[in-house]
Amino acid sequence: MLKNSGTLFLFPSPISDSGMISTEDKAFLLEKFQDQNCRLLVEDHKPARRRWISWGLPREAIDQMTMFNEHTMEDITQGLIGDLKNGQDMVLMSDGGLPGFCDPGAELIYKCHTEKIRVHCRPFFNSVMLSLVLSGLPHKNFSFLGFPPAKKNERIQFFKDNQKKKETLILMDTPYRLNQICEEMELSFKDRMLFLAMDLDNDQEQTWLLPIAEIMKKLGTQKLKKEFVAIVGPAGFVGY
């Protein structure tokens, strides 16, 4: 990560307007609002205002919220990246659900990765969807491949069989097979981007987004043993 840069925090919110948040999430938002070096990014002011007030958070925060959506992203993304690189934190909230899923937040997340800016999500119950969003990779279409076969020869054939799929691909496996999975994926997906989400939601969390060949260089002789989800980017994708 870029030294002294800020963090982009993703804040999953209830799908229903009347949904409540946990005490811990409320304390997190209050802390970030009170932090003069943090900015709140919302999809639309009106629903964000309704939710914020219903959660019992300070009304004065509403006027400080920055609207980030398909209408504003082109004009403000580079400025946001610059502020993050200069040490400002940001909290990205959607109108409901997981920010960055099928919305402009994906591009902001991806740009954070390319600029080595940390992206972190508040606790979320589904590691597959969380990993997909944290990757910032395009996911208008995606396939969940599940767990590859346990036997090496069958696994290599499994990746070959899925090579023709051009959309974003999601898979997971046991921690001790992380290195093997990456090595075998390189044989079939060597020209594609790979996102590794490792040990999510704990102090050892790591996320890598690089071409698969670069991931292999980064692994080097390391024998990693981490809970992980792997996201293979769509064929031909090199950036937004």
The sequence of SSEs as H and E is EHEHEHEHEHEHEHEEHE
| Bulk shape | elongated
Write down the overall mean pLDDT: 95
Q: What is the number of independent domains?
A: 2
Could you give a short account of the major beta sheet?
Answer: 5 strands, parallel
Give the CATH architecture of the largest domain: 3-Layer(aba) Sandwich
Residues in helix, %: 25-40%
Question: Separation of termini?
Answer: 21 Å
CATH superfamily grouping of the largest domain? Tetrapyrrole methylase, N-terminal domain
CATH level 1 class label of the largest domain: Alpha Beta
Radius of gyration: 19 Å
Structural class: alpha/beta
Q: Using DSSP, what is the number of strands?
A: 10
Task: Please name the CATH topology of the largest domain.
Answer: Cobalt-precorrin-4 Transmethylase, domain 1
Which stretches of 5+ consecutive residues score pLDDT under 50? Answer: none
**What strand line-up does the widest sheet have?**
3-2-4-1-5
Strand content: 15-25%
Topology:
Blueprint: E1 7-11, H1 23-34, E2 38-42, H2 45-54, E3 66-67, H3 73-85, E4 89-93, H4 105-114, E5 118-121, H5 127-135, E6 142-146, H6 152-162, E7 168-173, H7 178-189, E8 193-198, E9 206-211, H8 212-219, E10 228-232
Helix pairs in contact: 6-7, 7-8
Task: Please describe what this structure looks like.
This protein has 240 residues and is of the alpha/beta class. The longest helix has 13 residues, at 73-85. The chain is built from 8 helices and 10 strands. Helix 6 (152-162) links the parallel strand 6 (142-146) and strand 7 (168-173). The protein folds into 2 domains: 7-124, Cobalt-precorrin-4 Transmethylase, domain 1 (3-Layer(aba) Sandwich); 142-232, Tetrapyrrole methylase, C-terminal domain (Methyltransferase, Cobalt-precorrin-4 Transmethylase, Domain 2, 2-Layer Sandwich), CATH 3.30.950.10. It has a 5-stranded parallel β-sheet, with helices on both faces. Strands 6-7-10-8-9 form a 5-stranded mixed β-sheet, with helices on both faces.
